[in-house]
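User: ok so my PI wants both of these folded by tonight, can you help

Assistant: No problem, let's get them done. Here's the first:
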Amino acid sequence: MTDTIEAKANMQTISALPPEETERLGTEIVGALKTVFDPEIPADIYELGLIYKVEIKDDRTVDLDMTLTTPNCPAAAELPTMVENAVASVPGVGVVNVNIVWEPPWTPERMSDEARLVLNMW
């Protein structure tokens, strides 16, 4: 089974990992994602809304779906590796698989208020 960080509050998941361990991993994975910045944008990829899904599997493998601000993003070659390395640095995480997805396409509406503040996009 897997746990998805962005799961709806009323959704139940069954996992071999204790709930407190899943919560710790989820919190620390989000923290790790917030250390990764698009080299051309002064906001982290999590607050930019580039992370679409994070699944923590029972064997501690982490599958992550992310997008880029544009298919022609100059950081397209390096960002997935940066994300993989950041998530892999979390204690207790196993193999990390980063998948680039294009659906739904990224739009500025996906940004958090924190990213909007940093980028002065109100």
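One down. Here's the second:
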Amino acid sequence: MALQVELVAADRSVWSGEASLVRARTAEGEIGIMGGHEPLLAILAPGDVSISGTGSDGVTATVSGGFFSVDHDKVTIVAEQVEVTAGSGTR
């Protein structure tokens, strides 16, 4: 079951597409999201966000903090600053 993921910075869309796994650091600790996950709203801690695309496409980015939302297999990650450190940018 694929996730629809959108990673956005305050000034641009960084990455969007289908993913099999999203990992991020929240204020409560590290979290991994796969399809079928319960709804969730969390505060992002500064650190890395890793998105494993359903194909070979995916992205790893460093975020300054922000929030992380999961609802009906849709993941939205919003951060003030996002720096892509590996993978592809907006697709």
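The two ends are 20 Å apart (CA to CA). The mean pLDDT is 92. Good luck tonight!
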